[in-house]
Write a structure and sequence with these properties.
It is built from three helices and four strands; from the N terminus they run E-E-H-E-E-H-H. By secondary structure, it is of the alpha+beta class. The strands form two sheets. A two-stranded antiparallel ribbon has the order 1-2. Strands 3-4 form a two-stranded antiparallel ribbon. Keywords: Metal-binding, Zinc, Zinc-finger.
């Protein structure tokens, strides 16, 4: 019984690699790859795919980034609270 998560090598589907070893394996395996060029996901460099648009629909790292970005937009666009003395929080004292 293994406690590690495994992934499939994007360059050779017969390679089942422990995820923590995937970056090193990809560099090695890419040298022997003779198929169509794969694009590198900018949200996780171990993701190598043919169709980036399709990949981004399912990529958990991309989806997490979008969620975080939405939160940041919500925080920056909120209205500052009004102080009890009647002055707006944005006006200097």
């Amino acid at each position: 019984m293994s406690y590690y998560e495994f992934g499939i090598c994007p360059y050779d589907k017969t390679h089942r690699i422990m995820l923590f070893r995937m970056p090193k394996h990809i560099v090695k395996c890419e040298k022997n790859y003779r198929g169509p060029p794969l694009k590198i996901c900018k949200y996780n460099a171990t993701h190598r795919v043919l169709d980036m648009e399709e990949h981004l629909k399912e990529c958990p790292y991309y989806l997490r980034t979008i969620d975080n970005h939405a939160v940041q937009i919500a925080l920056t666009s909120r209205i500052a609270p009004i102080q009890e003395d009647g002055n707006d929080a944005n006006t200097p004292l």
